[in-house]
Amino acid sequence: MFSSQFDGSTAFTGGGFTGSQSTQATDSGISPARSRDTQGLMPVTVKQISEASQSGDDKSSFRIDGVDITNVTLVGMVFNKVERVTDVAFSLDDGTGRVDCKRWVNEAFDTKEIEGIHEGMYVRVNGHLKSFQGRILLNAFSVRPVTNFDEISCHFVECIHNHLLNSKSQVGSTLDSVSSQFNTPVHNRANGNSPAPLSQLYGQINTDGLKALDQMVLDFLQQPSNIGSERGVHRDEIVKGLKIPLEKIMDSIRSLEEEGLIYSTIDEFHYKSTASV
Fold this sequence. Notes:
277 residues; 5-stranded mixed barrel; 11 helices; 33% helix
């Protein structure tokens, strides 16, 4: 279901768009049958859908990046379109995988909308997920042609942004428990029980993929005095502030860069949190 034949190179150079598609006007009308709440649309990729987990017994309840979702929006290329009396089935390929979609045809508006969709065409699909025989399907309530190349790249940027935002919120929800672990008493022969230094705990705690030291470095860069600096923060300042060896700090910096949470500024020694962008 999730094998991909999408050509990523053509997605941004014009492949797949026909002359009629690039100039076709989008019907902005709304079918009365589609009185669904579309305000909660979450931009996702097919890969994220394939990794989604059900959040309950309801076959249409799913969680992506730890967030409950109702409606999703995708952009990709149409394959294997099959028209029937009451519905139209097709596969959507966005380069990260392929998902089966179904668009019910109940009114003249629905028929008109789906008649303008052809194989090999880039479209935006809005719908809700459903589990059927162990597979995740997309019940579409809107399928429209993509008429602007920028919409493809913009969609993936939105997917990345939401993924980072939701992942970060999941990390933030565990900070209280992490803080309590930082203050776990440890036995000291001279002074008895005392709070454990942070430097003793930086390698021990994970919070949804972020090590405790990674979180400490990120928090340091997000301090008001640091987040407002255009130059960023020198790595030596982080070492001095956290009192942790440079080698460990650099390991965390590389990890945070890979996660897209920080970036280098004026040189390879100054860093800044992406939260300030």
